Sequence to fold (338 residues):
Amino acid sequence: MIELCKLIWCGLIGLFRSRASLEIEILALRHQLNILRRKSPKRPILGSIDRMVFVGLYGLAPDVLSALAIVRPETVIRWHRAGFRLYWRWRSRPRGGRPKVPLDVRQLIRDISIANPLWGAPRIHGELLKLGIEVGQTTVAKYMARGRRPPGQGWKTFLRNHADGVASMDLFVVPTISFRLLYGFLILHHGRREILWIGTTAHPNAEWIARQLTEAFGWEEAPRYIIRDRDRAYGDIVVRRIRAMGIRDRPTSPQSPWQNGYCERLIGSIRRDCLDHVVVFGEQHLRHLLRSYANYYNQTRTHLALNKDSPVTRPIQTVGRILPVPILGGLHHQYVRI
Fold:
């Protein structure tokens, strides 16, 4: 540090000296350097202050590189670049991050994920939005309980236009405790992903399906189109009933279940959220389970396609204490404020 002060003092004094005196002193210093290089062939050891001095002089006058004797010009340039990187690293240092998520919200996310092991981050995020808690979906995924199975893969919809006037129907098989096969029948409205009708039977035939259609749309406005597969259960009676109700029948192509993707996805949700976790005792028990799930699906369950809302719009609650309401015997929960 003393040597640096002396160097600065000499520089200030040199401002008031004559040019001839400075030139003579420069020649004397150059000659001393030549003598030192002959006597000391070893590489000199330079400190941080020495390097800062050379870099500072290079910044003031780049031509000073031609006067260097104990270091190479490339070395000074490398020091200058390293200092430039350190300077901008200091300028770009973080000055504070995101606000921390409150402890009670983090604990609530963990409790919801533990109580509902079938839910993923989008479903939990939708529940938090309905409770008036504004957090990001990535934050929900970060604070969820670990060790859960990965969520099911998504699927692409094939109907974008006129969804309000389109419905679809499908049958699915449910085994009972006595290995008897029962059949569930559902009708789904595409506009709000709402289950319009759900029924059960042990012997699905055209007459029964036609009666279900009449009961589903007897007092409600019938959709303009209805999508179905080419199951043999949809006989001529069903086709005539559909046309008599003013609905256009749109059967899918053979072996193309993706063309009825909404219903196929709903059946998968019914299995994953309900039927895969209970043992069905009979037709009456199955009817009770499916109707309970339909109420939960329409009034409580949030959906990605509805911007994290339920088919029957749920109001956002912001005031009150949060309490879980068990659904389907505690398989799922609805979180409300009271």
Observations:
- The longest strand covers residues 166-175.
